[in-house]
Structures are given as structure tokens and as C-alpha cells.
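In practice, a research group might receive sequence data for several interacting partners and want a quick structural hypothesis before committing to experiments. The following worked case mirrors that situation: the sequences arrive first, and a predicted assembly follows.
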Amino acid sequence: MLPRTPALTRRAFSLLALGAAAWGSASLPALAAPAEVRITHSMTGGAQKEAFDAIVAAFEAAHPDIKIKQIVYDDDLYSDTGLITQLKSSSPPEIYFQWAGAPTQRDAREGFAMDLSEALGAEGWKDSFIAPAFSQQMGVLNDGKPYLVPITLDVTNVIWYNKQIFKEAGIAPPANWAELIDLTKKLAGKGETPFVIGNQELWPLGNWASHIASRVVPPADYEAAFRLEKPFNTPDFEKALNLVDEIRQAGGFNKDIAGLGADPAMSTFFQGAAAMHPIGSWLVSSATELAEKDFDYDEFNTPLIDPAHPLKDSVIGTLTGFAVSPKSQNPQQAITFLRFFTSPENQVKWAEAGSFSPVKGAMEKAKLDPKTKAMADLLNSAGSLVPPPDTTYPVEVAEAYYQAAAYVAGGEKSPKDALVWLDDRVKTMRK
Amino acid sequence: MTGGAVKISSSTGATGAIRAGATGLIFVAPALVLYAAFVLWPLASSVYYSMTDWDGISQARWIGFANFERAFADKIHLASYLHVTLYILGTLVFEVSFGLFMAVLLNSDRPGFALLRALFFSPVVLSMSAAGVLWTFVFDYRTGIINASLKAIGLTDWAQPWLSQPTTALLCVMLVSGWKFAGLYMILFFAALRRIPRHLYEAARLEGAGPVWSFCNITLPLLKQNILVAVLLAVTGGFAGFDLFFTMTNGQPYNSTEVPATWIMKQAFDNDQLGYGIALTVILTGVVCLISLIYLRYAERSHVVEY
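A structural hypothesis for the assembly, expressed as C-alpha cells:
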């Protein structure tokens, strides 16, 4: 039988316990769980994800009171349902990846994205970015207020070429459209496939075709057509599609253009089965994984079409960035992270991972591989930046234009017929 | 007195009936609640959202029947029904008919036939997406085995971009669908064939009937119910067809393999027009229900077998 504890000892234990409890509650703030900042995006792997993880780790080390949780989706899943589901939930993530343009402006209107005017205005944060990043044209603003912290500038279409094939054919990157058609004919005559495009999803050719149109059609008419305020069936749009048709007639496109996927088309280019491949700047990081080490390639922008056109030396591209959800639990901590992420030293790391940083000086200070450097130079030398229609205008209108371009490239319709079809198609979209 | 007795008796009966009804209602309530929550409510909300302009994020805006008007003016949407009809006709040939043919051919206990049946059935267990991706490689213009084989035997001109031509793409999807599902129908028909009494064939043979006569006059009539079920499965499955189209052609080339399901996906999610996509789904549901009802009515009427 256990001896009974004397009453005094019991009281002493009680006092000790009370004291311990009091000390514990006094020291609670020090032991409190760190605030969680959830970031949702579609970086599933590769150099960008590694750089992002490293910056997140550095942030957590510098801010032990904030914990970052990444919610990662595959690219298609993210844009189709992943982001919508999260934004509509009762506890949306603090930070989410978004494209500038129509998606950001919609989020701003619907209250999913926070007005970042105050945050960006503090301590010169906004001034740390290159000025064009916050121009109205780039789609970061809604009613003049910023709703996106820009992180990457993506060139969505340039013409990549196989240097070996060009050398063997004795050709050089073209200076104007006529030269492009000449070299296409020359390559086709040698039995080469001049261009390989995987247009099953329509945007690979559509993006290029819309860049061509933006260099031919007067900017106001181009904008008005995509906003369904004017018809597409005009001599200017017909001229733009005629240029696509010229490539087809020169034997420029791969026979399986309409059914080939974008990734297999890129692999075809890496295998040396085609001389040129029009696609975005992400080809550089794909080449690291998919192309042979001795695969030698370079790029040139869509050559000069009309010297009198105001966008004659434009580049087609878009900004992507991070938005902050005002309904999330820790929006202020989210801003703290974004300031850290867009600091010049972290943006240098971001740039070295293959991203085109919109932060001043990051691209200049970063040790870039020659291909990324060439893309940076292309952007720097561009007279203007044209955003792709599918992130700027109603997606269904952009898709319809892409389909019209696909008809022309496949020889299914003449440029005129394709535009008649296009106007008929968008007619059903008017409300 | 009598009237009063009847009245009391009637009142007791009514109360009893109500009590019995209430008891029954209590028993079916869980099922009713589940049915309402998972079938009726989603159905009603779908009908509601089909009459809105909604991108899935913004506030839905009521627009009445505008989405339906648009759907009936949308030529690609209308053409998708033509494509799916052609696809279903193809599945009737490549899946149901070929499955029946194989079932009759392999209806034997001889050694090796069980293995052949298993081999023929094996594609059924593959996922549709995996099958679609696999066959995309087979049909590939540059590296596909079909074009490589044609070139190897000197038929270079016959090599085609099979999935990039409107004239061949839909046929390719039908063939893959047939490869995938003919085995399933073979097993269904094989099980039914085993139940046909052998003496019918023996009697026919004694009367001098050949195998074709026996097939047409014994096998087919006795398999009528199974064929009707198989056709119903093929038709309803055809309307729901998505995976193969999505992985093999994504509705291309030039929308020639666009079927309702792929078009709905594109409108709802790629083009951020969830309201319009839901309206297309409501139309598809109506079409499938209508066809199923007509077909089942026909099947009920013709279930009596005469031979």
C-alpha cells in the first residue's frame, strides 16, 4: 500500500503546477506556431522550381515566424480547375500564380486579388521593377491599380532554328518576310521540313499568327476585332493570313501540323527532323532536358513585315506573377514573402534558373547561359511587347482566330474563307 | 349505429394507412435524402447554371435561354453530334459486330481457345487514356509503326499523317475503340452463347442446315436480348466518349473529331465559359435520355423471341 502524501506536500505540488502553468502561458507567444503562407502555382519541377524552393528555404530561415506551404498543380490542371477551386474556397491561399491581362483583371473585379497599390508604393518596391512591367498594356493593372507582383516575362513566340541545318543549306536568319519565304522554299527544296509546329491545341501556330497579324493590322483595328467591336474579315487581317498561306505554299509546314501535339513537335525539332520551330522562351529549359548535348540551335524574332507599321519590331510575350488573396488568413505575411522573393539578390537567382526577371538589374547581374542571354537581348531590343490574345481578350475569340489560322496553315480554307468562317463563328459569341 | 361503426372503422383504417405510409417514409428517407443531395440537387443546380453567364469565378449572371440559343447556332457543337453518331456507328461495327464474330469463332473448348479469348479480352483492362497515348505513337507520322511498316514494304506513298487528316482521324479513333472494347462484347456474347442448348444446332444439322443458316436462325434470335443490351451500351458509351478523343486528337484536325464531351470541356474549362458548358451538358443529357428511352421502349416490345 502506498503511503498517503502529506497535505503540505500536496499544496506545494499544486503551487508548483500553477507556477509552471503561469510561466507556460507567459511564454506562449514565443512558442506559438508560425503563421502559414500558402502559395499555389504550377511549377512542378525543373530549374525554376529548384530556385523557388531555395528562395523559400532562405525566407523561412530569415523569418522563423512565417512558414511557407506550396500547393503545386500540373500546368493544365492549375489553369482549368485547380486555381478556380481554391479561389472559391472559404480559405483561399495567401498567394497564387496568375497570368497578367484578362485573368488578373477578372480577379481584381471579383475581389479575388488584393489591390497592391499601398504595398508596392511603400519603400520604393514598385520602383525596383522595370517601368514597362506596370504599363497599362501589360495587364498587371486594373483601373490603374496593381493587382499582380510580376515575376517573369515570357516570350511566347520566337523562331528557333537548327544551326546545323541552316549551315548546310547555306542560309542565315532572315531580315525580312521575303527572305523568310526564300529560305523556306530553299529548305523545302532540299527535302527538309522547314517548320515543325504541333498545332493540336491551336495556340502554337495561333500565337505566331496573331503576332504576324499585330504587325500588319493597324493596332486599333486589331484590338477592336478581338474585342468583337469590328469584323475580322478585313483586307488587313486577310493580308496577315496570306502571309501564313505563303509559308504553306512554300512547303513550310510539317504534314502532321493539325494533329501533332506541342511537346512532340518540340521533340521533333530537337531530333533534327525540322529546321525551324516557332514556340516560346521555355524551349531553352526543355532543351536542357530533352535535346542532345551537341544540339546547336539559336533563335530569331518574326522578321520585319511592314517597315511602316508602329509595331514592326515587336516581341510577343506576357507577364506572369503572384497575386495576393485579400480573403486569406495572412495577407501581410504574404506581402513580406513577395518583397523577399522580388529582392534584387533573389531575382538574380531566379534569372539564373532561366526566368526573365522584371526586376531592375537582375538580368544584367545574373550569370546567364548564352541562350537565355540572347532572349534577354531580344527583349531589350524590342520596340514594343505585344501580349498574346488568349491572355488579353476573351479566350473563345482568341481560340477562334487560332482555328482560322490553323485552317489556312493546313490548306483547308483560303485566308478569305477562313475570315468569313471566323466572323460567322464569333457571331454566336456576341451577347 | 351502423353508420357510426363504419365511420369509426374507416377512420381507423385511414389512420393506419397514414401510419404505415409514415413508417415507410422513415425507412426510405435516408435513400431519398441521398438521392436528393447527390442527384436531384446537382441536376437542378446544373439547369440553373445553364441559364447563366458564368466563368466559374465571377458572379453568375442570369441570361435565360441565351446559352441554349447559342448552342443551337454553334456549328461546331452541332457537328460534334454528327461526329459522335459516326463514331457510334463505327463502334457498332468494330466493337459489337466484331465482338460477336469473335465470340462465335472462339466458342469452343478446344485447347488454346481460352488463351485466345483472354488475349482478345486483355485490352479491356487497359485505361482509356493509356490506350489513347499508346495508339498515338502507333499512328505517329514520323516514328509510328504503321508508317514505318508501310515504308519497309515499299509503300512509302501510303504513309499518312493519320491523326492529322479529317478523312482518317475519326476512323483511327473508331479502330482504337474497337481494339479496346471488342473483347468486352466478345465475353458478353460468349457467356450467352454457352447458354444456347446444343441440341438445337444438332437438330438443325440433322435437317441439313449449314453453319450460316444456324447462325442466322438459331444464334442471332437467341442472342437478340444480349445484342440489344450491347447496342444500348455502345450508344450510351459512345455519347460519353471523351478519353480517346482527348488523348488522340483533342477534337482536331479542324474540329473533325470534336464530339460533345470534348467540346463541352473546351468551352467550360479552356474558354472559361462554365455556364455555356453546363448548357451543352444539359442538352447532351437530354439527348442521351431521349435515345435511351426510345431504345428501351423498342427493346421491351421486342423481347419476345420467336423461332
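Before designing any experiment, note the following. The first strand of chain A starts at residue 35 and ends at 41. The longest helix of chain A spans residues 7-26.
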